[in-house]
Amino acid sequence: MPVLTRLIPSPVVVDIRPGALDDLACVLADERISQSGRLAIAVSGGSGARLRERIAPSLPGATWFEVGGGTIDDAVRLAGDMRGGHYDAVVGLGGGKIIDCAKFAAARVGLPLVAVATNLAHDGLCSPVATLDNDAGRGSYGVPNPIAVVIDLNVVREAPVRYVRSGIGDVISNVSAVADWELSHRVNGEKIDGLAAAMARQAGEAVLRHPGGVGDDGFLQVLAEALVLTGIAMSVSGDSRPSSGACHEINHAFDLLYPRRAAAHGEQCGLGAAFAMYLRGAHEESAAMAEVLRRHGLPVLPEEIGFTVDEFVRVVEFAPETRPGRFTILEHLDLKTEQIKDVYADYVKAIGS
Ligand SMILES: [Zn+2]
Question: What is the Cα–Cα distance from 43 to 52, expressed in whole angstroms?
Fold first, then answer.
């Protein structure tokens, strides 16, 4: 009988719970990941040191690599250092920068990557994309999806709360990104992947509708799972379409126009999503999204992250240029400066203060 379904590129292990780190050695000993115990582990020199102390005794065959930062040079250097070590797998242990560096380096040396995320700042912890700083600012590099993902919610809790907030904004923005994808499907006939769209939207909706807060285990569990499922949705579609639309164009525009003043990724994406929902005429959804963002301590107005209205208008105007070829509500409406100002004033009234 022919196989009529498709296979989904996905990690062989997903372990998300309080205390998951205690069983990391067990996960890594899975014969599909490391038979010999020879592992290359990438950590940061700072916060990674404590985790290293804690885990190193259970992983005697591991070699530890300190990663300098989140640039393409750091990633290339890491790959060079790992070359010739005859490892079974690379483990990225840390926040987004470390995992992205490890992802890129693992792809370069042809080894599978295990992502051990210590914060929930964005949906890159299980995605087929490595975001690294380069000479042009910041680049996204296609890489294989991690072979395993481990998230210890006790470790996540120890990270500054702004990382959790950033993850909330990033995953909630999926709802707007999928709406952009559907818009492009209707207007341009762009192919939409129903499974990827469903996974990304459900992840966004789950966090949007969860009554808990950043301090609850139940909420952190749902948030971490939502971020992982978003990454897998990107693998299913083969690009970032399920989780990146006008919300992310606005985020990129903040980063590119004001590199020194830019706020956290998820803060900018959440604000971008609430505004994009308003732009597409989904006024109730926009207000509901803004309310949830506020409840979690995320910004819904540019001034809450230190930008004037005029600067935000410039951001919205510039946003489509950050992602040529991606069609969203911004490209669809193609608003001029004065129109953006007007609609922004309406948005502010609509979400209340
Ligand atoms: Zn994002």
Answer: 8
